[in-house]
Amino acid sequence: MIQQRKSPVSPASLAGKKSWDGEDVRETLYADQNGKCYLCEVCTDHFFEVEHVQSRSNFPEKAFDWSNLFLCCRYCNARKGKDYDDIVSPCQTPCEEVFDVYIRPGSKVVEITILTPDIPGANKTRELLLRLHNGKKTGMRDMKERIFFEKFQDSFSSFVIRLNKYKNSRTPENRAKVAELLTIDQPFLAAKLSVLRRLPELLEDFQRETCWNRKP
Ligand SMILES: [Zn+2]
């Protein structure tokens, strides 16, 4: 999960309070979020839904509130439901600096660590991220959760391999291969930043590439 950016002007169709997922809402969210799910950071392609951070059932008054709407994949939307209303504010929280998302070599469990205490909703968000990455009960993933984890693990490993290659041979070509996995349209950026965090000299080297929506 990385900090999100949202167009300041609310899409016109929301004013009618009839539909929260009009074409203008979808298009604006898709552009704002680079086509990625705000929770898991996977490219949604055409399989996206418009999600209410604070659920419609518990917060009906926020059903058409632009600040409450985000592009989400079906996988995450189904698991978030109305059980995680009080997560961090996606646009106001530098999520990738608050949550460390890491998998140790050989492990099948994704660790989510809160780096910055006292952020409202951080614990609940951690709980949701653990659910998305590890399944309902750690180590007991259903089929979709297993497929998601494998996708995460593949992407994570590919990044580690490219980064190690650059660490051992700092050529412009090797650097470019790391940088292309760090553009904002790429998946799992928070986890990639967590890998870099463990290699401070490289983290500094890729400072420019890892600002994303935290840019002023
Ligand atoms: Zn997702």
What does this entry look like structurally?
This protein is mostly helical and 216 residues long. The protein has a domain at 12-80. Helix content is 38%, strand content 8%. The chain has helices spanning 23-32, 74-80, 95-98, 122-134, 143-168, 172-179, 189-197, 200-205; strands at 48-52, 69-73, 99-102, 111-114. Strands 1-2 form a two-stranded antiparallel ribbon. A two-stranded antiparallel ribbon has the order 3-4. A hairpin with an 8-residue loop joins β3 and β4. α5 (143-168) packs antiparallel against α6 (172-179). The model has no long low-confidence stretch (mean pLDDT 95).
Strand runs, count: 4
Unreliable stretches = none
Taking all Cα atoms into account, the compactness measure Rg is 18 Å
Instruction: Name the structural class.
Output: mainly alpha
Return the average pLDDT rounded to an integer.
Answer: 95
Give the ligands present. Answer: zinc ion
Strand adjacency order, main sheet: 1-2
Helix content: 25-40%
Distance, first to last CA: 19 Å
Strand content: 5-15%
Number of helices: 8
Largest sheet: 2 strands, antiparallel
Written as H for each helix and E for each strand, in order along the chain, the element string is: HEEHHEEHHHHH
Global morphology:
globular
